[in-house]
Every structure is written in C-alpha cells, then in structure tokens.
Amino acid sequence: MSNRYGLEIRAAAASDAAGLAALLSETGAPVGTADVAVRLEALQRDGGTILVAVEWGPPSGLIALSPVRTLDAPRPFGLITTLVVAAESRRRGIGRVLLKAAGRAARQAGCDRLHVRVGPDQRALHAFCAAAGFTEADHLFERPLLKRGSGEG
After folding, report:
1. What is this structure's pTM?
2. pLDDT tens digits for 91-128?
3. Quick one: DSSP state of residue 125?
4. pLDDT over 80 at 149, yes or no
5. Would you say 12 and 41 are in contact if contact means Cβ atoms under 8 Å apart?
6. HEC states along 46-91?
7. Number of other CB atoms surrounding residue 30 within 10 Å
8. Distances in Å between the alpha carbon of 119 and those of 8, 83, 125, 145?
9. Residue 49 near residue 15, CB atoms below 8 Å
C-alpha cells in the first residue's frame, strides 16, 4: 500500500497472524494465532479492512476498520475497532500513518467519517485520538446476545 522511511503499510495477510496475536496480547486481550487468522479472514470477507505497519520482522502496528451503515445517515461511517502499536514502536508516528491509511480505505468504501472504539481503561488511546483530531461523542452501550430459550429477560 505505502512505504514511508522503511515503514510499510499493507493489508494484513494470514501469514501475519502470529505477529498480530503478539500485538493484541499487549492490549491485555490475548488471542491465539489460529483465532487471529480466522477472525482476520472473516473481517476481510465482511468488508472490513485490516492494515499492518511493518518495519522489519513482525508487524509493529495494526488497525482494523469496518464500514457501518445506519438509517439516520446517508453514508456509512468507518468504525475503527482495533488500533495498536507495539510498545517499543510508539511515539514514532506509526499510529498516525495507520490512521491516515485507514482514512483512505474508509473514503474508498464510501464512508464520510471515522469513529474509534475506545475503552474507559485505554487512556493512551484516548489521548492519541484527541491529539489526532477526534472529538468525544456518543456513548456506546452493549449487552451480550443470549441464545433463544436461555432465559433472556
């Protein structure tokens, strides 16, 4: 996709699964290599974009984006569900380069804005988003979907 000062930004491939699993473990959400490969393929099949930043060796950064359509907006928005840069690679502009590439991908998918999912305990990501021009908006609530007949109330 692009190459800047030895940093390559490209679509994630199944061969990146082990490196992506290592990156995700840094976020406190350990995922096995096989699970990452399956999820990567499913996200791409469903129209998502997963980009990696590679300098040398395994990926040093990752961003995952899915276009989301709603009834109340004429165009979809790009939902960034994962943005992580390896601890030893932070503060070098990799997150911003990934964000810029994701913005291009979102525009190509017809999106007119980006949303980033940030957990309450992700202070560094919150600060990064604020510095990158995001404003805090809608709160997101969630609940699990229970199987029919399981006593959902």
Report:
1. 0.83
2. 888 999 999 999 999 999 999 999 898 877 888 888 88
3. H
4. no
5. no
6. CCCEEEEEECCCCCCEEEEEEEECCCCCCCCEEEEEEEEECHHHCC
7. 11
8. 28, 12, 9, 20
9. no
Give the number of C-alpha atoms closer than 13 A to the C-alpha of residue 88, restricted to the C-beta side.
6
Supply the DSSP string of 6-58, one letter for each residue: TEEEEE--GGGHHHHHHHHHHTT----HHHHHHHHHHHHHTT-EEEEEESSSS
| Alpha carbon distance 22, 13 (integer Å) | 15
Domains belonging to the chain, first-starting first, are: 2-131 (3.40.630.30)
* Statement: residue 62 has pLDDT above 70: yes
Residue 145 is given by DSSP the state P
What pLDDT, on a 0 to 100 scale, did the predictor assign at position 78?
92
Q: Report the alpha-carbon distance of residue 113 to residue 42 in Å, rounded.
A: 23
